[in-house]
Amino acid sequence: GIWQASNFLFSGTIQCSNAGILTNLLVRAGTNFYPATAVDTGSQGTNFTLSVSIDTTLLSNGSNTVWVVVTNGSAPPTVVTNAYLLLVDNAAPVIASSLSPSVWLGSNFTFSGSLAKTNSGVGGNLLVIVGGATNVVAPTQTASNYEFSLSLSTNGLACGTNLLQVVASNGSSTPVSATSNFTFLFDNQAPGFSATVPIGWISGTNLLSGSVARTNSGLGGPVVVQVGTNIYRVYPSVTNAGSYLFSTNLNTANFSDGTTAVSITVSNGAGPAAVATSNVSLLVDNRAPELATGFAQGAWQSSNLLFSGNLRSSNSGLPAALRVSVGAFVTNVAVT
Predict the structure, then answer these.
(1) Which backbone phi and psi does 120 adopt, to 5 degrees?
(2) What are the backbone angles phi and psi of residue 221, rounded to the nearest 5°?
(3) Which residue in 23, 114, 284, 287 is deepest, having the highest Cβ count within 10 Å?
(4) What pLDDT is stored for residue 25 in this prediction?
(5) How far is residue 74 from each of residues 16, 48, 78, 212, measured CA to CA in Å?
(6) How far apart (Å, rounded) are the C-alpha atoms in residues 189 and 269?
(7) Rounded Cα distance, 199 and 207, in Å
């Protein structure tokens, strides 16, 4: 009832009813014959011990029969044949996983898989080795196979291709082990980027542009620019140098006057993604200055006229001068 693998030591005791000499002793397993020697235990020829090494790799996996044929020295000789059940399993478990070698991973992830059943089952825990760390996981038996799942830390892994190994053994008395190698892509590096933001007080439509350095996994989507409640998703273009360029027009009519917060977010192409965000601000002024004068419109004037008034500034301040024109008369008036 115990599964065996590799070389198996078959042993036992032969008892004779009368003292005598064993003239023939033969052990057969499958189609293979093993000459064996019985050793007298010193009980005056009535007790002998038998020991022979059987190479189970020459047998079929599953149930096998070991035949022992004993012939004594009487005349005529007595031949005794006994059959013994030998369970053999030299098959290592076959390990499968859905881990993709072409999908970028960005942080701790769950690694799962299955083991096809062998005759003797699985011999204990599995070893999952990644980044120099060995993880132990106990598989769960199902109706058709064994399944396993564990969360793996990516701490200390290098960006790029990494190796993951799974070691499993069958349930034989001498376990037969198998190691399966899997590769996966890892990138926890957030993209570096720079942006050129309009400087000073702005109005109307203005250009925001920038560049993003490429990581191993590339970009995970558009560059996201948020100004107040306005969100711009900008899909960058790839340059020959492998970086990304992006630009978008910002319509300041959609923003509040004054200092307006701007956030720019980029992410790499791993899952979950590594994200980088930069926070800047814009100075927006879409309000024209307000002019008030004491000039009496519709009143007839003669001789020299003193034109004066008050100018209420906008967020961006007052102009250095006003342009006043009356017919062909044009002059610039300083603002104090």
Answers:
(1) -95, 0
(2) 150, -165
(3) 284
(4) 83
(5) 11, 16, 7, 96
(6) 10
(7) 11
